[in-house]
Amino acid sequence: MVNQQIVQIFNRIADLLEISGENPFRVRAYRNAARTIESLGRNLEEMLKNGEDLTSLPGIGRDLADKIREIVETGSLGKLVDLESRVPPALVELLKVEGLGPKRIKVLHEQLGITSLEELQEAAAQGKIRKLPGFGRKTEELILKGVVLAKKEGRRFRWSVAESYVEELLKYIKKAPGLEKVQAAGSFRRKRDTVGDLDILVTAGNPGVVIEHFVRFQGIKNVISQGQTRSTVILQSDLQVDLRAVDVECYGSALHYFTGSKAHNIAIRAIAQKAGLKINEYGIFRDNKRMGGREEQDIFQAVGLPFIEPELRENRGEIEAARAGRLPGLITLQDIRGDLHMHTTWSDGKYTVEAMARTAAAMGYEYIAITDHSKRMSITRGLDEQRLMEQAEEIERVREDVKGMAILKGIEVDILEDGSLDLTDQALSTLDIVIAAIHSKFRLSREKQTRRILKALDNPYVNIIAHPTGRLIGEREGYQVDMERIMEHARENGCFLELNAQPARLDLNDLNLKLAHDNGLKVAISTDSHNSDSLLFMRYGINQARRGWIEPRDVINTRPLDKLLKLLKR
Ligand code: DGT
Ligand code: CA
Ligand code: CA
After folding, report:
1. Who is most buried in 4, 357, 469, 522, counting CB within 10 A?
2. 187 CB less than 6 Å from ligand 1?
3. Averaged over 31-45, what is the pLDDT?
4. Is there an atom of ligand 1 within 6 Å of 157 CB?
5. CA 187 – ligand 3 centroid, Å
């Protein structure tokens, strides 16, 4: 929770600094620090308590370390309060409009007094924007389109962020007198990569008492509504929470209803209707006679289907598959035998090869691959051919010391603009595993970007394409590529695509994973860890994999070492 709060504050400061036209380096410093903290996997409050030096974290200097301490100790940051008094905070949401940068927002604010999406839309519709210096009719049209999109998108939270709020909230709700059951439903239960709002279901002898307790949660900013059986609140983070209390008799049907998705619910109801049944959040009915609804399983039974896992409930073929007895046997965390993408102190990782190997061993893994950056990524101190050889010697030493853990020699090699790689074939040929990745030139045309990746796949040493679309959830769209062509080419070449388990990436997304599953292309689920704690991010990858119908056999790192090594031989 504290980590998330700090991430939020730093990102907000970056937004505000950007709009007030501050030095881009300072803006970037805040964003980088936010990113570091987000993928930290350790609680900053505890680190401070243990007297650890935060400046040892990448991108955190003295100044930011002090700011973190201030947030931990006081719950807020003077710097943010100061900025918010100088820049209208509502201007920040204008950044969401495609084509609007801080400079333009400043002009819109100063010339037209615009402070919100609403006002922006109105000004654009009235043709006021085209008259501003440097704007024009085309820009105005673009802005108008952008506003519609930005309004539709609203603010969504990454699943991992929502999880930190859910944990805290459920812990609190469980203390309510007379509480029986509590469960988070909605997109959160379906493990969608982002969550619009939280839907929490409770049963209790006296629901009014539970709701009284709920609205007194200290993390609440606004109570929107409070009734006898339902309440809606906004948390400090702006995350909305809908709480509903239902009768135990209805718990199963309510859980099914509020888990959704809406499309899945509608499809299930249509089947029920054909069979003369009515299904809603209160139960299953035939001619107004109640037939069940206590357990979620009752719903599926009523329509003659086996239980369908929440992650699959998107009406993307799961109902047909259930009917045909062909539901996938979804992967679980226990199926994973190793992690194939991680960084060490040789590039921008925080821990040594040995530390990473020991943590992985403690997690019960059989193997890991050490895959630092290549030289092109100079800010990460990426490896050139010479240092790659030196690292190999260290890996061999650690292999001797950490028994029972296979440590693969690897690299995350940069794919250059023309699709060639950042290291010589000779150097790549010495490795057990080669991951290739794009870290630059995100805006090539779809055709050029696709051909760039196809060419990388043609290098005989490449095994895996890392984070194949480059998206950062809520921050950056992925680059444009023809994913079907890439998948087909990867399969033909005996290569694989990565499902990057970083909670801000989750790349491939669920739809692309299903495409891989349907086309028989195997994937690697990897954490891309830059420190040993984030090896635990594997579970986010598993969530996402399950949404993409992924079974253990679709994943190369469910294989024992000998089988894995065979798959890595092209
Ligand atoms: P979100 O919050 O945008 O991430 O997505 P959800 O899926 O959590 O959607 P939400 O919070 O609007 O509603 C929670 C669940 O309630 C949704 O998954 C299915 C159910 N639901 C909501 N509206 C309708 C509806 O009009 N018809 C049906 N059948 N179900 C609905
Ligand atoms: Ca929801
Ligand atoms: Ca909701």
Report:
1. 357
2. yes
3. 87
4. no
5. 9
Please list, in sequence order, all residues whose beta carbon lies within 8 angstroms of the beta carbon of residue 153, skipping any fewer than 6 positions away: 96
CATH 1.10.150.110 for domain 2-153: yes
- List residues bridging with 199 in a β-sheet: 242
- List Cβ neighbours of 51 (8 Å cut-off, separation of 6 or more): none
What is the distance in A from the centroid of ligand 3 to the CA of 195?
10
Atom of ligand 1 nearest to the CA of 192: 4
Q: Is the CB of 240 under 6 A from ligand 1?
A: no
- Percentage above 90 pLDDT, the chain: 79
- Tell me which of 257, 259, 278, 547 to substitute to probe ligand 1's pocket, judged by most ligand atoms within 8 Å of the beta carbon: 257
Residue 154 predicted with pLDDT over 70: no
| Contact yes or no for 237/279 (Cβ under 8 A) | no
Q: Is the CB of 199 under 6 A from ligand 1?
A: yes
Q: Could you give the C-alpha distances from 291 to 233, 256, 276, 561, in angstroms and in order?
A: 34, 15, 12, 51
Residue 371 C-alpha to ligand 2 middle, in angstroms? 37
In this chain, the answer to whether the domains covering 2-153 and 250-323 adopt an identical fold is: no
CB of 253 closer than 6 A to ligand 1? no
Q: Amino acid identity of 74?
A: T
Q: Do 120 and 108 contact (CB within 8 A), yes or no?
A: yes
Pick one of 3.20.20.140, 3.40.50.720, 3.50.50.60, 3.30.479.10 as the CATH number of 333-568: 3.20.20.140
Q: What mean pLDDT, rounded, does the chain reach?
A: 94
**Closest residue to atom 16 of ligand 1, CA basis:** 258
User: Sorting pLDDT into bands at 50, 70 and 90, what band is 515?
Assistant: very high
pLDDT band at 474 (very low <50, low <70, confident <90, very high): confident
Q: Provide CB contacts within 8 A for 487, sequence distance 6+.
A: 497, 515, 516, 519, 521
Parse the chain into domains and list their residue ranges: 2-153, 157-245, 250-323, 333-568
What pLDDT is attached to residue 153?
A: 65
Enter the CATH code of domain 157-245: 3.30.460.10
CB 59 near ligand 1, within 6 Å: no
Closest Cα to atom 5 of ligand 1: 187
What is the pLDDT confidence band of residue 570, given thresholds at 50, 70 and 90? confident
Count H helices, E strands: the chain? 23, 17
Tokens of 510: 């669920």
- Nearest ligand 1 atom to the CA of 194 is 4
Lowest mean pLDDT among 142-146, 269-273, 472-476: 472-476
- Mutating to test ligand 1, I would choose from 188, 190, 199 the residue with most ligand atoms within 8 A of its C-beta, which is 199
- What CATH class is the domain 250-323? alpha beta
With cut-offs at 50, 70 and 90, classify the pLDDT of residue 97.
Answer: confident
The answer to whether the CB of 200 is under 6 A from ligand 1 is no
Q: Which atom of ligand 1 is nearest to the CA of 242?
A: 11
pLDDT of the residue at 389 = 97
Q: Give the mean pLDDT of 46-73.
A: 92
Classified as helix, coil or strand, 502 is coil
Name the percent of the chain lying above pLDDT 70.
99
Assess whether the C-beta atom of 254 lies below 6 angstroms from ligand 1.
Answer: no
Among 209, 164, 208, CA closest to 184: 164
pTM: 0.82
